[in-house]
Amino acid sequence: MARSKGDTPIRKQYLEIKSQYPDTILFFRLGDFYETFDEDAETTSRELDIVLTSRNVAKGNRVPMAGIPYHAVENYLARLIDKGYHVAICEQVGDQPINGLVPRKVTRVVTPGTIVEPGLLPGDANNYLACIVWQDKRAGVAYVDITTGEFSATEITAPEIEPAVRAEMMRLNPAEILYADEASLENELPGYLTPWPAWRFESARCQQILLDHFETASLDGFGLRGMPFAISAAGGLLQYLEETRPSATKLLTGLATYKLTEFMNLDAATRRNLELTETIRDGGKTGALLGVLEHTITPMGNRLIYQWLSKPLLDLDLIRKRQDGVEYFVNHGLVRAELREKFKPLADLERLTQRIVGGSGQPRDLVAMRSTLQQLPGIKELLPDDESTLKEVSKDLHLCSQELGLIESALEDDPPATLKNIGVIRNGYSAELDGVIESSRHARDWIANLESVERDRTGIKTLKVGYNKVFGYYLEVTKSNVDLVPENYIRKQTLVNAERYITPELKEYETLVLNAEERIHEIEARLFKELCERLAGSVEKLLSTARMIARLDVLASLAEAAALNGYVKPEVVGEDMLDIHEGRHPVVEQLLISERFVPNDAVFDAEERIRIITGPNMSGKSTFLRQVALIVLMAQIGSYVPADAARIGLVDRIFTRIGAQDEIYAGQSTFMVEMVEMANILHHATNRSLLILDEIGRGTSTYDGVSIAWAVVEYIHNHPGLRAKTLFATHYHELTQLADLLPGVRNYNVAVSEADNKVVFLHTIVPGGADQSYGIHVGQLAGLPGPVVQRASEILQQLEESSGKAVRIDPQAPQQLAFFPETNPLLADLDQLDMNTLSPIEALNKLFEWKRKYLQDGDE
Ligand code: ADP
Ligand code: MG
Q1: What is the position in ligand 1's atom list of the atom closest to the CA of 625?
Q2: Separation of 274 CA from ligand 1 center, angstroms?
Q3: What per-residue confidence (pLDDT) applies to 533?
Q4: What is the helix (H) or strand (E) element at residue 156, kind and residue range?
């Protein structure tokens, strides 16, 4: 892409622009195409599978070129953005060439976090652009959704800043993360990483940029006092937007600061394990908590319920406020139904506002806004005055009647979808436009009548009015009649038998007719733009209304879920307690078809810290653990809960360590992952946390497993800073002895009925430790061959008899090959191992692999 002497002017223009966007693919508008050149062309052609051609840019210098038609740009953009590229769109500005060259300018840079095209955006989810600035133990995080105007920032302090920042990123799940290029960011973050020069984040600079943007003298009003990192992050984002999509900044009318301590902290593993917004199995909503609670109707409601689920609250007042709103809609089913009916025709008011304010609005967007605003009075009417939460919502839900009036007066009832066609603006809105339309109609009529008028005036019976491309409209008179032609006729063309004339008047009307369409187009485009600009003055009002609708939608949705599924309003309290009566798992109860879901209590007595739950496989231990966590979480988002009654003391964090299956990744063994997660829990849990520990120690040998599990329980119980409420499911019966040793430990087990040598799981959790393992019965239920079940019972008996002594299995059956050393393939494998080159991790992995291979890793 080097310059060469004989470069054409357009090549020079290209190189000049390209030099400002080195790391970005430049889409260079040439007529109906966006062309890419040089390396960009190679990338584009490879990634988009389009033809790579070449173009002469100087004598003897051809460079690679690849182009896409401008009307299909969205689709191609989507694919490049998806692959993490940034694309600068360079348009032709103005039609008049200057020195033979059309001026061109980059109008926006499209990056994953700055897209607004409806076709590229996820409909139900926010598309966040986030920014991280950090140093030592302190970090600033800001994020923005330019399609909805949400703009927030926070400052985090933590002894280990990276995990804290990462957890926040997992919660936000941004499409793109901006950060200072001198920082080293770990790759374990969601979204695409965009490094940017460090000076951009310099705090004084960022402060000034925010002040200028918000036109204020101080940032204190935004809650940014003493938060230099948050200011840097927010200011960095603003600068980035100004360079990538300047129009987007208009939508950012405010900045909300928040604290991580306002929300329940959920680490990524817990989010996943509890299947809050998506299932582990297929990443879908169905089967996740979101799938049960989401009865929202509007797009903004869909986004908000996702946010609520991701951010359970820690503030009693805020929780109760939401609960009151939900309660109102639970108790007023009719209002709820009517309201939800009214939501159905609503368009995505947040994103519509963004498009209209941001300058990319089209007539169809105003049509959608008009029909949405028309519904507002009907919605507001339904809201009660006597319920304080809803009254508050109602206060910020503006009727926007002025804005509606403006659109109604300006916009045709059924205008074309885009500005490409005319007929957008209503008759009576603009005298100028009406004048042009009127005079064009008048001119048409005048020309249509001209023939008969002139025949009468001149007495030439054969006079004709005609039209051709070269001369436009003309009057044609046969040669025999030329002496009757009046003076004002100007001769234009001579034919064999006739002469053609024009008159200045005819030309005037002709111009009116021919130019009318173009002028109407121009005027309509201008009026439309003005209309959008006037609406932009109401951006705060429109967005606030959109957000209130989202809020109502979510409250009604939670009420709908509560009513459909028989939930109750939990009492959320400040004290340290957990009191759930007849609780149910919100998702599993819906999946059971023939069976009834068996409810269970989770009532912790005053002393109780750790509840150990034993019981056979498939009896319902894991379900119970998750159900308790989900009920607490639902309560803290303001929802009703699946129980008969519940009193829940605020929980600061929920931690989960669940199951050891399918979790081998990044070269770590299951056991390693398990221990890393366990360590994280023990370091961060407090006495107000809720710990869900399911089968800890499963990934290792029995003795190791029991020992670790035992030590973990002791630690949680005895560590003064910990003592978190813990639900511990295990198949290690040994652990039930802990209840005799530690005062805060209680044993529970899942009741089983045994009749005629058949086991039935009752799914009821009852006090006391389980005294028998039913694994073999489960094997039988699952259809293991009779002899296997038989033999297993014998071995079990031997094991039980020898308990306490070194275990020796009588190698009675010939198929017990593994117990004969001379034929044991494990020994052969051991022999192969080179102890001198083996790292501890590799050793651990080897052990793990062998266990799998030789013991078929019965995951017990
Ligand atoms: P465990 O962890 O003890 O192996 P799970 O919790 O995985 O058992 O439960 C196994 C299955 O039992 C679940 O998939 C569900 O179908 C059923 N189940 C669990 N709890 C209940 C319950 N309370 N009522 C009815 N069925 C249940
Ligand atoms: Mg389980």
Answers
A1: 6
A2: 15
A3: 93
A4: strand 150-157
619 alpha carbon – ligand 1 mean position (Å): 5
At position 333, the amino acid (one-letter code) is G
Around 801, how many Cα atoms within 13 Å sit in the side-chain half-sphere?
9
| Residue bearing the CA closest to ligand 1, atom 20 | 620
- Categorize the per-residue pLDDT at 723 as very low, low, confident or very high, splitting at 50, 70 and 90: very high
* Mutate-to-test residue for ligand 1 from 618, 760, 761, highest number of ligand atoms within 8 A of CB: 618
The alpha helices in 196-267, defined as continuous H runs, are: 203-214, 228-244
Q: What is the pLDDT of residue 284?
A: 86
Q: Which atom of ligand 1 is nearest to the CA of 595?
A: 25
Which residues lie below 8 Å from residue 102, measured CB to CB, with a gap of 6+?
92, 93, 94, 95, 96
CB atoms near residue 63 (< 10 Å): 18
DSSP state string for 22-47 = TTSEEEEEETTEEEEEHHHHHHHHHH
The pLDDT, as a whole number, for residue 697 is 74
Residue to probe by mutation, ligand 1, list 281, 588, 774, 777, most atoms within 8 Å of CB: 588
Ligand 1 neighbours by CB, cut-off 6 Å: 588, 592, 595, 597-598, 615, 617-623, 763
- Reported as a single tens digit per residue, the pLDDT across 486-500 is 989 999 899 999 999
- Residues 6 or more apart whose CB falls under 8 angstroms from that of 15 comprise 1, 3, 7
Atom in ligand 1 nearest the alpha carbon of residue 764: 23
Give the residue, by CA position, lying nearest to ligand 1 atom 23: 598
- 790-793 contact pairs (CB < 8 A, 24+): none
Q: Counting Cβ atoms within 10 Å, is residue 400 exposed (0-12), middle (13-18) or buried (19+)?
A: buried
SS (H, E, C) 495-539: CCCEEEEECHHHHHHHHHHHHHHHHHHHHHHHHHHHHHHHHHCCH
d(CA 88, CA 698): 52
Long-range CB pairs of 273-281, under 8 A, 24+ apart, other chains included: 273/626, 273/656, 273/658, 273/692, 274/626, 274/629, 274/630, 274/633, 274/654, 274/656, 275/587, 276/309, 276/310, 276/633, 277/306, 277/309, 277/310
Number of the ligand 1 atom closest to the C-alpha atom of 623: 6
Residue among 123, 524, 510, 539 at smallest CA distance from 302: 123
Residue 587 predicted with pLDDT over 60 = yes
What tokens does 363 get?
């007539």
Take atom 26 of ligand 1 and give the residue whose Cα is closest. 597
Q: Which of 479, 643, 549 minimizes the C-alpha distance to 296?
A: 549
Backbone angles phi, psi at 840, to 5 degrees: -55, -40
| CB crowding 567-595: b at 16 or more within 10 Å, else e | bbbbebeeeebbbbeebbbbbbbbeeeee
Q: Could you give the CA distance from residue 146 to residue 454 in angstroms, rounded to a whole number?
A: 63
pLDDT tens, residue by residue, 373-422:
999 999 999 999 888 899 999 999 999 999 999 999 999 999 999 998 88
User: CA 388, 393, 396, 398: dihedral to nearest 10 degrees?
Assistant: -120
| CA pair distance 576, 5, nearest whole angstrom | 78
The ligand with the least distance to the CA atom of 621 is 1
List strand residue ranges (DSSP E) for 4-119, in order. Answer: 25-30, 33-37, 53-58, 61-69, 87-92, 104-110
The end-to-end CA distance of the chain, in Å, is 63
